[in-house]
Description:
The structure is a single chain. Helix 2 packs parallel to helix 4. This protein is of the alpha+beta class. It is 25% helix and 29% strand.
Amino acid sequence: MDRHPGGSPDTVTVLWCTTDGDERRKAHTLVVRAAAGTLGVAPSEIWLEHEAGGRPVLAGAGKPLHVSVTHARGALAVAVTGLAPVGVDVEVVRQLRAAAMSRAWLDPAEAAWVAGLPEDDQSLAFLWLWTQKESVGKALGQGLRRGGMSRRVPLPEQWPPGDGAPPVPRSLPGDPGVVSAAVVVDGGRRVIGVALHGGTGSASCGDDVRLDVRRVSAAAFG
């Protein structure tokens, strides 16, 4: 791995890893190093701050980039891009009362899709939608407030998704200014959602947004 994991400012780079603790410190380190790699500067030239609402923002040389950070149950992920406000969420795939939870919280069309799948697929399908909704809320800077769970995200064009297959972001139904996608990683044990908010009619947030999702190792924190 390169010393500074990162990618092109014209894509959304998502880096994730498993961790055995201290996720906040490791996420902080990873997002700074990813930004440094994207911009070709030393990590010491970038630092992480937070807006009043809690959204992470880069300062110093990192100001041109948008970032998002998430961690849950032994995994963390960061998203870095120069395109537009971004959100990322990671969840461990686990058994849920997915059909009932979908009826309670999701849009009716999404709930019907989850319920129509084989029971063994429903938990992953729920989390596939959930991570995108969390990511959209982060990209919009409002979390899941204002009906965030019922905000529709695009249903998959095929199911089940391939493990680690390159995700293709698509516009939210009725909101072309926001795109989202989800990808299953780690042998099906985790799912990562990503969203980008380019604003209404933004040319930088169409369905041709490219995601670069990569697993990183402990070397990223050295």
